[in-house]
C-alpha cells in the first residue's frame, strides 16, 4: 500500500500515520517530495484495511498495490485450473462448447434444442428454469418443472446440465437437478446467493455483472471460493457502454486479462453480449482465438416462437458454421475440442 | 408498438405479421416506404409481447412506444405521490433530510450520529446493520444486533429508521425493527428481494443500480408495486462512467426525468455518488434546487475510525452548512423543510 | 511519482531505475514490501517523464502524484479567477447568464432571440455561425455572414458575443467579430485549434469533450494557457453514458471538482447536456446551487422552425422561470447576478 | 421515418404534421393507438430533415429508420470494397498486417522498426511524425523531419507509409510523403480535417473516436467520401468504458457490425486499445478470427527508450508469435495473408 499525503499535510499528520501502521505490526517508509509526502506500507494488508487510513487527516489518496483477492489469484496458484462438470473439463487444455435454449419451455423444445446442441459438438447443455427478467410481466421460467425437464433431457442425451439459480432459497433444489449452477449477470453482487452456491457442492458458472469491473468480478468469485468451492468458471457476457449497435459490448480483452491474474477458467457468452444472431459465429471465433476456455450460446429449434431472447438463438447454417469453428480453430491455439475426448458416460443420479 | 421491416422483407413476411397481430385482437397499419415497410400496432401491448415479433422473418427492429411499467407510471396516476414513513412525509410538498452513519458499529456511535443528524435537521435516521460489501474480507455489518441498536436509538431520539436489507430471507426480521426498508444499488435487480419487500408492509427506499437505466429502475419499482406495495421512494446515487474524479457520476437529471414519468417520490444520495466529503454540500444544494424530494447523507461522529465509507462522512462545519442549505433552499423551490412540520411523536412499537 | 514494481522484479531492475532517476538529478526512495517493491521519486517531474519508466524491466505501474497541468492549477494560484468578456465578468463573485440561438439563421431571428435573452437577464449572447455537425448533410451554419449578423445584433442590443470556432484557419476571422471564442465538445482535443485560440487575444469558452475526463479537459485548457491566454472559461455540457433518457448525462459534480483543482471559472450548459426543453430550468437551478459561475442556454423565437437543436430551445413560460431562478438563487449561494452590475456600455469596434 | 406523438397530442397537431410532410412531397400514414398516434413517413428523407419535426407540437419522438449515411453504406453498394495503398490491398480477400513505431524518433530507430515489421510479415509501415498528445508538455513528434525519415525508410524497405495528420493545414505536406493518411481517434469529429483528407487524393485510415458510436464513425467516413474519396479504411481502436484493466475496451463486435452495414474495409489496432504488450497477440488473433481485414500494431526496437507508448510496443518472442498468427490464422477464415501476394515493387516518387 502507498499513501499519498495532500500538499497541506503536516509532519504531525505523517507521524500519526506511521504510528498507526506500526501499532498493527507494519512498517512505514516515508519519502518527502517537493510538494507531497509519500508513505509506503509493508506488512499484513488485512490489518491495514481496518485502520481506515483514507479517513485520516492529511491523507490525499491510498493506492492498493497487491490484488484484493487471494483464493482465486494466480499469486499463490501459478498454474491455471480445470473445472470438471460431471466428467466434462473446462480449462486450459480444452475448448468446451455449451449450448441450449435460453429458457426451458417444454420437454419437446428442450430435447430438440439439446439434440441440436449435441449434434453441433456441445458437451454441456444450458437451459433456464428460473429466469431473472427486467419486467415483472415477462415469462419468469417454469421453475421446478423446468428443472425436471432438464434432468430428463440429460438422461436422454447424456449432456450434463448448466442452469441458473436466482435466489439463495432455491439453491438446494437447483443443485439437486443441475450439474453446474449459473449465477447470472444481475446477481453477480448478490452476496447471499454467492455464499449459498459456495456451499452447494456443485461447480459454478459466474457471469460478469454487466457493469462490473474485472476486479469486482474476481471478488465475487472470491466470495464463492471462501465458502470452500473453488470450482468456479467465469463467463464474460458483455458490458454496458454507450454503443447501441449491440445489446452489450463484448469485452474480449477480459479473457487474457483474467487469465493473467486468476487461475480460474473463463468462457465467453456471445449470445447475450451481442443480442444479435448474425454476430454469434464471428464472436465465437474471436473467443476461441483469444484463448477462451469455452463458449456458451443460445440455440432453439424455433426461434420465432421462443419465449425468451429468440432473436439471438442459432439454428441451421449458423449453427453448422459454429460447429465447424469449434472443431477447427481450437487446435490452432493449442487446444483440444472437448467433444473429441472420451468420457465416462453420464449415469442417472 | 412499431415494427420496422428489413429492406429484404417480403410481402409475405408482412402478411404473416399482420395475421399474427390480428390473431390476438390487435390492429396492424402497414406503411410501405421506398426502402422499408413499417407496421404500426394498435391494441393490448401485453398480448403483443407474447408474439415474439422480433424473432419473425423480415423484422428489422421493434420500437416500443408506451412505457413498459404501469403501477408506478404517471400515465394513469397524474399527481405525484407522498410516502409516509412513521409520520414523516417524503413527497412533492416537502423536503426530507435523512442522515446517519453508513454502518451501525456500536450503540454509542449510532446514538451520537443520530443526535448529530437530528440537530442538523434530519427527520429520518439511516444506518446499516447488513452491509453488502465487494470484498468478503470487509466488515459485513452487525446483523440483528445492529437492528436492535437502531430500534433503541429510535426510542432515544424519536427518529424513524431506514436500513438496508440484502437478502430476501432477512426481510421479516429487518421489517420488525425498521420503519423503511432500503434496497441497495447492488440489489436493484435482485427480483426475489424486490418481491419480498413488496410483501413486507413497510415503505421501501429503492436505490438505483449503479449502471441501471432509469427505465430499468422503474421496472424494479414495478416489481415491488406489483406485490401490493406502492410506498416506494426512489434514490438516485450515481452511475458508473469513465470519470475517475468521483466514485460515481451523480445523474442529477434523473430527478426531473423520473418526476416526469413516475408518480413516486425521488431523493438523492450525494455521499455514495461522490465518495468525497468536499462535494456533499454542493451536491445536496443541487439536489434541492433540481427539485428532489429529499437527500440522504452519511454522518459519523468520528470519520477517521469509521468501519465503512469514512472519507465521505460529514461532521462539524460541513454538517452545519448542509443544515443551513436544508433550511433555506427548499422554500426557494416551493417546498417546506420536513423538519419544521409538527408530527405525531414516535411511540415504541 | 511512485513506481510499483512487479512481484517478479529483481534487485537489478530496481537498481537500474534508481540509477536512471539519479541521472536526471532526482532522488529515489526504495520500500521493499513482502511481495512488491515500491520506489518513491522526488525531484523535477518533467525530467522523469522523459525517462519512459513504464517501459523499464520490472515496472508494474507508475502512479503520478501531482497534477499534470500547471498554469490552470490552483497549486500555484490559490484564488479563483474572473474572466472578463468585454466588461462582463465570469467568476466566483457573480453568476453570468448567457443565452441565444444554437445557430444564427437570419438577422431577424438572431435579433429576436438576443432580445428575448436580454429581457430574461442574459448579459452575453451566444449564437453559432460555424456549426460542427455529425452529418455532412445537416445545416453547417452561415459562416462569415453569420458573424456579421452577430456583430450587428451586438450593436443593436449591447450584448457581447460568444461564438464557436471549429477550424484553426477561421480563428482570425471569428476573433474579429466575436468577444469570446467557443471551442466545442468535438474539438476539445483538437490541439491545433487550442493553440490557435491561445494566440487569438480573445477569451475562450472551452467545452468539455463529451467523453473527456476532467483531467483531460484541464490539459486542453493548459494548451490554451501555454500560448499565453489565461482567459479560459470551462463549460460542463454533459458526458456520454449508457442512460438514454437524456442526450448526455450532465456531470454536475464536475463543477465543484474543477473548482477544487483549477482557478478557472466554470459554467454549465444544460441545453446540450439534456437535449430536452423540460429539463433546462431544473438543471439551471441545480447549476446555480452547486456553485457554477454561469449557465449558457439555447433560446429561439420559434423553436419549431429552428435549423438546429430546436427541441431544446426555451421560450415563453420556461424562459420566465429561468429568468426568475437567475435573479433569486445566486444570492442564496453568495453571488451577485451579473445582470445587476453596472457596466461600461459596449461600443462598436 | 416514424413519428410517435405524445399522449396529449391533438388531432390538429397530427394534421399539421401530415400537411408539412406533404408540402415537401412526402406521404404520411397515420395509425391511431389507444394511447398514442404514430405517423409513418414515406419519401425523401433529406427533405424531411429540414422540417424540424422534432420541434413540432405534439411530437414525442422521431425514429429514423434507414441509415443516415449513403456513400459508405452497403445499401446501394452490396459488395465489400478493397482499398489499395501503393499496391497493397486492404479488403475482404486478404489480411493486411501494418506495423511500426508509435512515433518516428530518428532514422535509425525507424529503419530498425520497419525492418522488424517487414521480417514479421508486415506489408505496410506505420509511424507518427505529428503526434496529438493530451499534454502540451509531451513529445509532439518530429514534424516534417519525421515525414522525410519515413520517405527514406520506405525507399530502404519498400514498405508504403501510413502516418497521421492532425491539422488540416498539414494535409498537403503529409500527403506528399505518405501513402495513406491516418486520422486519429481525437480527430474523428474534426470535420475540417475530414474534408481536407477527402480532397487529398490519398487513401485514409480513419480511427474510431474513443467514444464514438459506430454510426457517428460511419458519418465521419461519409464526410471524407462526400469530398470524392472512397478509399477509406476504418480502424477500431477501443472505446472508453468504466473498466480500468485496459486503456480502452476493444469493441471486437464493431468489426462484423461495420461489415454488415458498410462496404468499407475495417482493421483493428490492439496496441492502442489495450495499452498493454501482453494482450497484443491474443487480441490480434481475435481480430483475425472475427473477420477483420487487417491489424495495425506498435513495434519498437527498444521499447524502454521509446518516446511514446513504449509499454505497448512489441519485440522479440511476442512479435514472432504475432507473425505466426498472421501467417496461420487468416486461411482458417478464408483469407490470404497479404504479404504472400506478389506485388509491383515500390518505386521512389
Automatic annotation (TrEMBL), chains A, B, C, D:
<dbReference type="GO" id="GO:0003849">
    <property type="term" value="F:3-deoxy-7-phosphoheptulonate synthase activity"/>
</dbReference>
<feature type="domain" description="DAHP synthetase I/KDSA">
    <location>
        <begin position="87"/>
        <end position="329"/>
    </location>
</feature>
<dbReference type="GO" id="GO:0009073">
    <property type="term" value="P:aromatic amino acid family biosynthetic process"/>
</dbReference>
<dbReference type="Pfam" id="PF00793">
    <property type="entry name" value="DAHP_synth_1"/>
</dbReference>
<protein>
    <submittedName>
        <fullName>3-deoxy-7-phosphoheptulonate synthase</fullName>
        <ecNumber>2.5.1.54</ecNumber>
    </submittedName>
</protein>
<dbReference type="GO" id="GO:0016832">
    <property type="term" value="F:aldehyde-lyase activity"/>
</dbReference>
<keyword id="KW-0808">Transferase</keyword>
<feature type="domain" description="DAHP synthase ferredoxin-like">
    <location>
        <begin position="1"/>
        <end position="66"/>
    </location>
</feature>
<dbReference type="InterPro" id="IPR052899">
    <property type="entry name" value="Class-I_DAHP_synthase"/>
</dbReference>
<dbReference type="InterPro" id="IPR041071">
    <property type="entry name" value="DAHP_snth_FXD"/>
</dbReference>
<dbReference type="InterPro" id="IPR006218">
    <property type="entry name" value="DAHP1/KDSA"/>
</dbReference>
<dbReference type="InterPro" id="IPR006268">
    <property type="entry name" value="DAHP_syn_2"/>
</dbReference>
<dbReference type="Pfam" id="PF18152">
    <property type="entry name" value="DAHP_snth_FXD"/>
</dbReference>
